Each structure stands twice: as structure tokens, then as C-alpha cells.
Amino acid sequence: MKYFFAGLLLSTCMSVHAQRKVDVAKQLKLAAHQYHGMLQELGDTTTLFPQSINPDGSMKKMKSDWWCSGFFGGSLWYLYEYTKDTSLKSAAATWTEAVSKEQYNTGTHDLGFMLNCSFGNGYRITKNPAYRQVLLNGARSLSTRFNPAVGVIKSWNNFKGYKYPVIIDNMMNLELLCWATQTSGDKKFEDIARKHADKTIKNHFRPDYSSYHVVCYDSVGNVLAKMTAQGYADSSAWARGQAWGLYGYTMMYRETKDKRYLEQAKHIAAFYMHHPNLPADKIPYWDFNAPHSDNEPRDASAAAIVASALLELRGYVPAALGKTYTDFAEATLVSLSSPEYFAAEGNHHFLIKHCTGHLPGHSEIDTPLIYGDYYYIEALLRYNRIK
């Protein structure tokens, strides 16, 4: 059955690529070693999920209702898929089940992150029917946050007094809805996803195809404000926001074959790849418009998301453009796999260093982030399938 990570498989039929510059086997072996260590550090308790490192040096852990709770189980599924290590499979199942109660959580838009990455990968690999039901329940819960009069899925319940804020990150959660339509035959899920994606194109993007972080609507769908929560300024291009948009529209093209989504993804990719403030190593500053200096924080998590997205997008475009995307993603993975960004040991067993979560909130600055690891592993797997 086709699933939302079908993009991992598409590169098996792609054109011949030049000599590899990233040793995927080595990096995934190191990743599996680090995650075995993380499992030992976490012990038998599965109520708190690895997230980052606290300023005092301890591991930062969060509950299952935090938007990142699905990434650890998802990474374990990916590592099991590559290594065939059954202990990783067992751990993946354990940490996936630990998120199960969130299938009924109607208070968040992030059920795609929470459930797709964990149960989605688990279902794709094992075809466990219980996982399928959790995903369908999650899609129903997510759908309750869609108001037809507004035309988009509500992200947060309140932001600076606005009652219907929508963030660019929300594009990532549409995958669960598309899958639910394909699995159940109920078209309402994909219809919601398409309407959200269409209105996001209309209101979230500037003429240069950079995106605002937050767009606030009234009760009938009029835009009241365009702002930021995690970026440098309302008018700036927050790096991870650009990554979410690129990945989200690449995925929406895969799921719907609507060429408008492909064109949107290509435009976002061009903005990101050719931005004059992008460092030579392809690891962006946390915001493209923040004052840049040697001490300005990078966001390696954004780089990992973009690398993974480009390695899928390459399969939907002519060969010459596809090679451009591949070369850029490869250069990004070279940087992420270097000692500067990849931790082969220590780091509380997280893989990727120098990520930025929420700089304006003074949270998770120049630190590992669990989703940086997840999309790095995914990008390696996609890169490995290039023939």
C-alpha cells in the first residue's frame, strides 16, 4: 500500500548519480550506535520523550502531547528499516505505542508530526492493523480543527489576541489527511488538506516565495495579521519555516499530482537555495534576515528538512533541475555528516548539533533537536536510494 513516505522509494528509478560524497552506511551505523545509547539513558520509562539538551547540560524531555513526541519512535523505525536490528524494532514499537493516546487529541494541529512519524512508519514497515486505526483516528481528530468558513486548519488556539492563527508548519500535518483519504476512501480528509494548502499559497507567501510564519484569520477567513512567533521579524524569512513550506508542498504534489503544488515547491526551493545569506556550507542561520555574524546561531534542523525535501523533489522535475537539487542536498548532507555538525558520540546521544528551536523565546539555541535527527536520517535513506 502506498504510504506517505513513498517519497523514500521514488529515487530507486532515478538517473545515475555521480560518485557519492556521503558514506551513508557509516553515518547510519553511527546513528544506530548513538540511539542505542539514548535508549539506555532513557531506561524503561516511556512517558517522557527525548527533545534536546537543557542549558544545564541535562537531557530535555517532553510529554507525549508535545508536538515532537513522534520523532524518536520514527527515527527508531527508520534505523531498524536500514539495519534490520530487531532490538531497534522492539524499541520503535514501544516508543510508538507511548504516543497512542494522542490519536484523540483535538487540541493540537501537530498530529501529523506526532502520529505519522511514529505510527506511520510503523504501519508502512509492519502493516500492523492497530497502527492503521490509530492513524485514522488521528486524522479525524485533526479534521476537527478545520473550519470551512475560514478555509484552513487552526494551528494554535490563540496568538497575541488573535483567535485563528495558522503557522506555515501546519503544511507538514496535511500528509496524515491525504493518507486517510487513500486508506478509508473518505474524500473529506484530502479535501481539507487541499483547501488548507491552497489558502496557505494565497496568504502565507510573499512575491519572492518566502513565507510568513503566522497568518491570523477572522471567523470568515479574512486575514487580520501576518506575523512571526519564532523568526527574527514579522517580515523576515525564518529558516525552518521555509523548510516546512518546501517539504509540505513537495509532499502535497506527491499526494495529489496538482502541479500548482509542484510549482510552489520549486519556487520555495529557489528562494532557499539561492539566498545571498545562505552560508557556503548550506546550513542556514536561524533566520535569513537576522543580523549575521560568526556568532549568529545556525539551524541545522532546517538544513536536514530541506535536504530530505529536495531528494524527493528531484524526482518530479526535469533531469537537469533534479541534479541541481541533488547536488545541493548532497552538499548539505556532507556538512551535516561532518564533525562540525554530527556527533559520533556524547551529545546525550543526539546526532545533529547546532540547531535552533525558538530563539526569540530564548529556548533551544545552538543545541540538538530530535526532529533534526529525524529528517537527517530520512535524508540519508533517500540519498541512499539514488542509483
Automatic annotation (TrEMBL):
GO terms for molecular function: chondroitin hydrolase activity. The active site is at D110, D169. It holds the Pfam family Glyco_hydro_88. It comes from the Bacteria. Keywords: Hydrolase, Signal. Substrate binds at D110, D169, T228, R240, W244. The lineage of its organism: Bacteria, Pseudomonadati, Bacteroidota, Chitinophagia, Chitinophagales. This is Glucuronyl hydrolase. GO terms for biological process: polysaccharide catabolic process. Residues 1-18 form the signal peptide. Belongs to the glycosyl hydrolase 88 family. InterPro entries: 6-hairpin_glycosidase_sf, 6hp_glycosidase-like_sf, Glyco_hydro_88, UG_Glycosaminoglycan_Hydrolase.
